[in-house]
Amino acid sequence: SEWSGGAPAGFPMGGYDVVALVSGGKDSVMAAMLAESYGHRVVALGNLLPADARVEELDSHCFQTVGHNAVEAYGELTGLPLFRRRLRGASRHTEMTYEVGAAEVAGDEVEDLRALLAAVVAKMPSVRAVTSGAILSDYQRLRVEAVCADLGLVSLAYLWQQPQPRVLDLICDSNVHAVLVKVAAMGLEPKKHLGATLAAARPLLRKIEREFGSHCAGEGGEFETLVLDCPLFRRARLEIDGTPGSPEIVVTSPDPYAPSGHLAVARDAAVIVAKPEAEGEPGDVIDVDGSAPAPRAA
Length: 298
Prior knowledge:
26% of the residues lie in helices and 22% in strands. By secondary structure, the protein is of the alpha/beta class. The strands form 3 sheets. Strands 5-4-1-2-3-12 form a 6-stranded parallel beta sheet. The chain has a 4-stranded antiparallel beta sheet with strand order 7-6-10-9. A two-stranded antiparallel ribbon has the order 8-11. Helix 4 packs parallel to helix 5 and helix 6 (164-172) packs antiparallel against helix 8.
């Protein structure tokens, strides 16, 4: 059903102040929208991006970075403060469990997440919860939950374990305008499908799920998206400059069966378009540089 904002009938108001982890992708944005629909207040955004701004895609087990240049505009689009941290760590500890403070997690990218959220709480002490777009990945969910437990926060993952077709339909039917910025699956071709809207690609995504057993909402890494407009964007929306050669299509694997590639969206290719009904002032972009705090005592 279509998302319209506000709490469902009969739901008690007075939820948490929430920081929404946003990658630019559809799932993280939808999770934040669902938090608002259940009476919580999204008061800030959090984002992790590559240390080198010229790099579009990292070999990360946890975080989407394709489209990160456009995410810089999300504070202006929403009117919310946008906390951003450049990733210093890498996917070092790849076991399923994650214990904050353990020697084996030193230098892991999840410590960047911990530093990011700690900075949010330090500046906005009312924040009590975190939304993320986790759907099927225990690896991702357990890491977000470990960081939240260490910082005394509640993890809200409203899409967790939802069927892929339901997630795809919910997002497409909730006024979320997203485009494909990465493809890596049978049935998807970089030069043909990158830049397509999620709504337009929905029939094809359903078809390749039936034919090849992939995930139609992309949870298996089949594709990634960039949200250009949604109900959370109360001030403005994004348009991608469509001049020839912009954005650049980067083919990372020409595999004849399952080619992969992504869009390199330059900062000036993401054009901010004000909405007539714009509310409030642009949100500040807050760079987080400090290290993660010492783990809380058990």
